[in-house]
Design a protein that fits this description.
2 helices; 14% strand; 4-stranded mixed beta sheet; Seminal Fluid Protein  PDC-109 (Domain B)
């Protein structure tokens, strides 16, 4: 048995109809957008307010600008707080050779108060410490 011949005209008509059906919603949307554009242009040329003149849109834009400025200020404050936390003095008690000290740690030794300026451990190393309060009567 042989196959019947393919009707090319029928196939071409079918393809054209499928493409037209697929494009119909897009063409309708395009026509609506063009009508909207034409109406806006007509209102603008007549001096009527347009969407850009909407006070609510202006307020939203101002709030977005203020929000961006606040976010920038907040970032700066967070960085400053982090820096202050890193440089805060933390009292660790009496100096002990077995403890690991970090910059900002404070310890007492031989009656004085010392502030650690560089990471250190082991026997007291004067190069890693700054004397804050000398031994004596603090009255």
């Amino acid at each position: 048995m042989s196959k019947p011949p393919l009707d090319l005209d029928w196939l071409a008509d079918l393809i054209v109809k499928a493409v037209a059906d697929a494009h119909a919603p897009l063409l309708a949307r395009l026509a609506a957008l063009e009508r909207s554009r034409d109406a806006l242009l007509a209102r603008a040329s007549a001096g009527a307010p347009t969407a850009g003149d909407n006070p609510l849109e202006a307020r939203v834009a101002a709030l977005e600008t203020a929000n961006a400025a606040l976010a920038t200020a907040n970032t700066a404050l967070e960085q400053r707080a982090q820096m202050l936390e890193q440089t805060a003095v933390k009292f660790t008690g009496v100096y002990a050779d077995s403890r690991i000290y970090s910059p900002g740690d404070a310890a007492t030794r031989a009656g004085g108060l010392w502030i650690c300026t560089a990471p250190t451990t082991g026997p007291f190393d004067h190069a890693a410490w700054q004397l804050a309060v000398k031994k004596g009567d603090a009255r």
